[in-house]
Each structure stands twice: as C-alpha cells, then as structure tokens.
Write a structure and sequence with these properties.
The structure holds two protein chains of two kinds. By secondary structure, chain A is mainly α. Chain A has eleven helices and no strands. Chain A starts with a helix and ends in a 5-residue tail after the last helix. Classes of the chains: A mainly alpha, B alpha/beta.
C-alpha cells in the first residue's frame, strides 16, 4: 500500500524532475526547453491575473460538460425508448460522429461570434453527442437477467428511466465520461484559441504570437493539471454517487 | 404441458434434437448434471429463446422466469424492487403467506443484501405476482435452510393457480414438493427426458 502511494507521487513528479535535470544538467537551449523558474514567474506577468484565466476556462468546460452529460443521457434514453426517434435521429447522429469536434468550432464562431453562449454550446454539443450514443449502447446491452426480469413482469425497461435507465447507464458510462471530459477541455481550449479574450486557450495563442515559450509551457502545464484534477474529481463524484458499487 | 419435435442449437452445438416432453402435473421438476440443458429448456419454455423448429408447443402463456443470477436492481430497496414489478399494494404484500421471510428485507437496499437475501426477495416477488407459468432455475441457491424450507412448503401447498417448472440439482427438493420429475442424462443432444420415479 505504502509502495503504491509512493509510486503515485513519483508518477506526478518524475516529468518536472526530468525537466529540471535536463535543463540544468544538460543546459538545453531556451528555444527548446525554457527555464522552469522562468515558466513559474511568467504567471505573474499575465494580465488579467492567471487565476482569472483558469477560472474562465474551468467554468466553461465544467458547465458545458455537466449540461452536455445530462442532455446526452436524456437523449440516449429517449432514443432507447422510441424506435421512431431512433430511426429519425440515428443516421444524423452516426454521420455527425465522423466530424471531428474541433471542426465544428468555426460554425459556432459564425453563429455566436465571440460570445460565451457559443463556447458553452460547443462543449455541450460535443459532450452530449458522445454521451447519447454511449447511453443508447449501454441501455441496449442490458444484461440478460434484467431483460428477462422486465419481460417476465410484462414491462419495458425503457419505461423506467429513473428507476433503471439512469442508474444502470451511469454504472457503465465512466470510460465515456472521462473521454468526454478530456474532449470538453480540448474543445474549450481550441475555441478560446480561435475567438476569445480570456482563458488558457487565449493565453496559449498569445504566447505563440509573442514567441513566449515560458508562457506557452505554463499554459500547457496548467491545462495538464486542470485536466488531471477534473478527471480525479469526476471519478470521485462517480464513486460517491453510485453507492451500490461501494 | 406438451412439447414435440423441438430442435435447438446454440453456437453450433445441438442441444435439443427432435425433443419431446409430456408433463401432466402442474409442478414439474427438471434435474440433471450441470450443462445438460436445463436452463436452456427453461428459457425456451419462457419464450426467451426460440427453438429452430418445433411441432407442438403446448405450454402456458405469460411465463415468469427466474434465472440463477438474481435480477434485483441493486440501487433499489427490497420494497422498491417489488413495486417496480407492479406489486404496489402494501396490504396484498403484507397478507401474503410468505411475507414473514421478506419483511425484514423490504427497507434494505439490494446491494447491501447477501446472495441468499436477494434470492429470497426475488422469489417472493415472483410468487406474489402470481404468474400463470412460473419457471425457476435453481431457485434455492444461496438460501438458508429455514427460508428454503418455508418456500418448499409453500410450493408443496401451492396456494395459487398456474404451472411451475423448476430445475435443481437437489432431487430431494423436487420430491418434497411432489413434482413430476424429469431427469436429463447429461448427454447432448437431448431427445427425451427420463421420468424419475
């Protein structure tokens, strides 16, 4: 147990330590590998405060992801319930899957300009699509014992979204949630790079145009940290909510 | 209950070939070694599996099948697992002759129950539903001796209409409920069953 915890901490720190070792041991050029201390201090030069940028990015993907998950699960369960809806929507949903989420950013910029609504809707739609498809698949792959039980009592599993659908889907959807969360962060950063005046994506874009490798490194590190924390928070929330798996 | 000329294959393995079964009792027992086709026959009887071909299939409609794996929803309580099946009348449930075995489990979440407790609730739910055709696959696995005895006594009295088909490894259970017992030899494919005396 102790060894496992130690390994976990090593997992968090080996890359920064390697960075320090390479930078100060091998004296790699600033052009390729910036000074770790320079990267840290670059945070103080950002206007407005770096925390404001972090707050905007985090709020955007969190709100979009939560709303997208809720809408995705509801859509998936409605598709599971209605054959007509499946026939109408599945061709559109299936064909939309082949379009990379980043490719729809220009549409949102054209429709909503630089407004916040567009960014929230972008993450929401990117998340909801993934979650809806996963929800439908999970519901359709219900285990035989439940299928037989519902059939035996002359019931349709799809008519019990709260008693059966939502808990069963959430029990099995964690991998898709984690993937969708990572996608949501990627989407929000890309949209901030293309059309925003605040957020970590905007900072990364500014760093590129001002050749500030320090700030670019800082942005990437912060995004990595935010992504890791969000993923951990998602897993903990999932475990805490699904009390029957404890 | 009468079946003739039934054939069924699963993943290339012929399980039943020109199979026939003729039972006259309303409590039928199936016994035999594991993997001999008992569960498959129950699933066919319950309409979960469709045979490849069949000449006569004279079995009661509206089957309720209880598989070996319990089907209680773990996030619901015992009571909620009853209501989801349509058993909403508290009075009807409280008046049921088996109520005493399930009563301590009604407020407990299914995930917090032992295998035997979950099985107890699931069997109660099946009996309380009063199906016209009840198919039970190894119903008393994991259930303690006392509860098992209560259920067997209930089945022996059978205070409800309808046909019961039950598979088990324990032939003594079938004898206790006065079932008409059919024994699988263990060889595949199955064409007929030996009537146990």
């Amino acid at each position: 147990m102790k060894a496992r915890i130690s390994m976990r901490w090593i997992g968090y720190f080996w890359l920064p330590l390697l960075w320090i070792a390479l930078k100060y041991g091998l004296h790699i050029s600033e052009r390729y590998l910036p000074d770790p201390w320079g990267v840290v201090t670059s945070a103080t030069m950002v206007q407005p405060n770096i925390l404001i940028h972090i707050l905007f990015t985090t709020t955007r993907f969190t709100v979009g992801f939560i709303a997208g998950t809720a809408i995705g699960v509801m859509t998936g369960l409605m598709l599971y319930r209605s054959q007509t809806l499946r026939s109408l929507l599945m061709p559109v949903i299936q064909s939309s899957r082949s379009v990379p989420a980043v490719a729809i950013i220009p549409f949102f910029l054209l429709w909503f300009g630089f407004s916040e609504v567009g960014r929230y809707l972008l993450v929401l739609s990117g998340t909801a699509l993934n979650i809806a498809i996963a929800t439908l698949q999970i519901a359709q792959d219900s285990p035989e014992r439940y299928v037989v039980m519902f059939k035996s009592f002359k019931l349709e599993a799809s008519f019990f979204p709260l008693s059966y659908g939502v808990p069963y889907v959430f029990e099995n959807i964690l991998p898709t949630l984690r993937f969708s969360l990572a996608s949501a962060i990627g989407l929000i950063v890309a949209s901030e790079m293309l059309g925003s005046q605040i957020g970590l994506g905007y900072l990364a874009q500014s760093a590129r145009s001002t050749f500030s490798l320090d700030l670019l490194f800082l942005t990437v590190i912060l995004l990595g940290l935010i992504s890791a924390i969000a993923d951990e928070a998602l897993i903990r929330t999932w475990r805490a909510s699904l009390f029957w798996l404890r | 209950m009468k079946i003739t000329g039934m054939s069924f294959s699963y993943q290339g393995q012929i399980i039943f070939d020109d199979f026939s079964l003729d039972a006259s009792s309303d409590i039928v027992g199936l016994s035999g070694p594991p993997g001999c086709g008992k569960t498959t026959l129950l699933k066919i009887l319950a309409g979960v599996l469709k045979p490849k071909s069949i000449s006569v299939f004279n079995v009661p409609q509206d089957a309720l099948l209880i598989l070996q794996e319990d089907a209680l929803l773990p996030w619901l309580t015992g009571w909620q697992n009853l209501t989801i099946a349509g058993l909403r009348s508290k009075k009807a449930i409280a008046d049921h002759p088996l109520y005493s075995v399930v009563e301590p489990l009604l407020e407990k979440h299914a995930h917090a129950m032992s295998f035997g407790q979950r099985r107890t609730v699931e069997l109660f739910r099946a009996f309380a539903f009063q199906p016209r055709f009840l198919c039970l696959d190894e119903p008393f696995n994991f259930i303690d001796e006392i509860t098992r005895s209560v259920y067997l006594e209930f089945l022996q009295r059978k205070p409800f209409p309808g046909v019961v088909v039950m598979s088990t490894h324990h032939v003594s259970e079938l004898a206790r409920i006065n079932a008409e017992v059919f024994r699988f030899s263990g060889a595949l494919p199955v064409s007929s069953l030996e009537v146990a005396r």
